[in-house]
């Protein structure tokens, strides 16, 4: 029984299918040896062929000795038999070749498949190499998109320093972090502006369209320059007309992208001596519409931090997302919490006067109306810069008040709303003391759940790990002051110990 090695060695020796040209009738070796081109009559000693039976040994050539002629005769007979046999076998061979001719097309086909498959192998190798480079470049310097008009940005050195600190983690840092702040405080702008100047940051924006498992995985893949690796097996299967294997489901796609991100994180860590950072912006959208996915991402962040692989930074507005995340056991691995608040007086005036060229008195009016929320300042400045003056401010005020009333309604604080009384009591306390402790806040709310409802609806706000609760916006403060003043309800004024202030 031949061994496998022997058989392999043999198979190597088996010549490949020759091209049909070699068998074409015009050029084949067989055709050159065609029987008609070698008639026996033309052969030497042909005269012996025509000898009549029984005349052997007599010869026709007189003068030749008998023994010589007998020897000559025997030799000629042998040669004759050889040529007869040759002609027979040549005829047989020609027949077989003719039968094989259709199969030579198969030979050509096999050769084509072989060359095509080899081409596929080369292509797969090349495209995977290009892909690897693309993935690598996702963590390069400036891979995070910068904000549009950087010259209009008001400088916030403290915020910049704090963000830079968490975006450049030390080797062996074993936590994930959070950047938190109310809507329009400038989180996205500042994170992108700082991250754009650093290497080792992958930024994923969770837009309203990327909250499902599938669309989030796609957004992540896009930010990471991820495309499926070119699978040689799938390529060859499809090339051979056998169809590719099944495509992965939504979660499987997420797993795949994270798997490769882990790999790139390892490479980065090895080269730079510190872990890279994955920034997930707007995770508050997940808390609202896909809380399960937020849990998964938090668990991934925890595991990656434990493995010292990469650091995740969750960017979120205050409210539901931090409440959800802090309520889980994975919060034990939460490290830095950077809170981004409103611009202070100087920063707000700098923004309005120097970046938006608004006169100081006008700037004061705007600041008095909207406070230091940079998003609102920018919106108001845009309207003012369009040429109008006082009516614009009145218009801004009216639109802000409309927004606030909508929020109050959603939080159940409208007239006769179930949270109206508790909400006004809390507001009254904040107006008196500037803030309220978390403990008193939840106590007046009636329950943890009702308190969280008021926080997640953006009437009041607090930061993770902060012991205090305040108004969500300046306009909310103005609106609630009016409501408290007009309520005439003595129970809205609650007496709480001053020491907690
Ligand atoms: N430092 C800054 N200087 C000038 N304008 C700024 C600055 N930061 C933010 N802005 C402007 O304020 C607006 C809101 O900013 P941004 O979108 O970054 O806030 P955000 O906190 O991410 O809001 P959200 O919670 O809704 O996502 C934008 O128009 C932005 O251009
Ligand atoms: Mg944002």
UniProtKB/TrEMBL annotation:
Top-level taxon in the UniProt lineage: Eukaryota
Gene3D superfamilies given in the database record: P-loop containing nucleotide triphosphate hydrolases (3.40.50.300)
A UniProt-annotated Pfam family: AAA_16
Domain Orc1-like AAA ATPase: 153-302
Protein name: Orc1-like AAA ATPase domain-containing protein
Organism per entry: Tuber magnatum
């Amino acid at each position: 029984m031949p061994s496998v090695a022997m058989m392999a060695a043999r198979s190597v020796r088996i010549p490949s299918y020759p091209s049909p040209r070699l068998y074409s009738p015009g050029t084949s070796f067989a055709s050159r040896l065609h029987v008609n081109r070698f008639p026996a009559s033309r052969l030497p000693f042909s005269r012996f062929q025509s000898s009549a039976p029984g005349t052997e040994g007599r010869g026709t050539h007189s003068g030749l000795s008998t023994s010589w002629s007998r020897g000559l005769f025997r030799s000629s007979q042998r040669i004759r038999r050889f040529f007869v046999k040759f002609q027979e076998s040549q005829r047989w061979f020609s027949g077989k070749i003719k039968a094989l001719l259709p199969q030579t097309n198969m030979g050509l086909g096999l050769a084509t498949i072989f060359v095509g498959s080899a081409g596929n192998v080369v292509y797969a190798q090349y495209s995977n190499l290009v892909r690897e480079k693309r993935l690598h470049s996702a963590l390069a310097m400036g891979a995070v998109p910068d904000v549009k008009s950087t010259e209009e940005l008001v400088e916030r050195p403290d915020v910049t320093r704090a963000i830079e600190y968490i975006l450049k983690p030390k080797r062996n840092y074993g936590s994930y972090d959070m950047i938190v702040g109310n809507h329009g405080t400038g989180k996205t702008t500042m994170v992108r502006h700082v991250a754009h100047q650093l290497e080792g940051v992958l930024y994923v924006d969770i837009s309203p369209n990327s909250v499902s498992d599938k669309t989030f995985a796609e957004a992540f893949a896009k930010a990471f320059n991820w495309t499926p690796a070119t699978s040689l097996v799938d390529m060859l299967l499809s090339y051979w007309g056998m169809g590719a294997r099944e495509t992965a489901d939504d979660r499987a796609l997420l797993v795949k992208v994270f798997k490769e991100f882990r790999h790139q994180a390892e490479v980065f860590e090895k080269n730079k001596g510190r872990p890279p950072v994955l920034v997930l912006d707007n995770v508050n959208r997940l808390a609202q519409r896909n809380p399960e996915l937020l849990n998964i991402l938090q668990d991934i962040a925890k595991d990656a931090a434990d493995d010292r692989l990469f650091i995740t930074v969750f960017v979120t507005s205050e409210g539901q997302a931090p409440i959800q995340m802090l309520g889980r056991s994975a919060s034990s691995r939460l490290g830095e919490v950077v809170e981004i608040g409103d611009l202070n007086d100087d920063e707000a005036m700098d923004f309005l006067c120097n970046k938006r060229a608004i006169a100081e008195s006008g700037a004061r009016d705007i600041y008095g109306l909207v406070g230091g929320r940079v998003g609102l300042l920018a919106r108001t400045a845009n309207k003012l810069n369009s040429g109008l003056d006082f009516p614009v401010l009145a218009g801004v005020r009216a639109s802000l008040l409309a927004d606030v009333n909508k929020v109050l309604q959603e939080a159940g604080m409208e007239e006769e709303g179930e949270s109206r009384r508790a909400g006004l009591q809390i507001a009254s306390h904040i107006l008196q003391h500037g803030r309220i402790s978390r403990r008193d806040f939840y106590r007046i709310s009636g329950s943890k759940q009702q308190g969280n409802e008021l926080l997640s609806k953006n009437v009041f706000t607090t930061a993770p790990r902060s012991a205090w609760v305040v108004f969500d916006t300046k306009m909310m403060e103005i609106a609630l002051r009016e409501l408290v003043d007009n309520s005439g309800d003595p129970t809205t004024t609650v007496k709480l110990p001053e020491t907690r202030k």
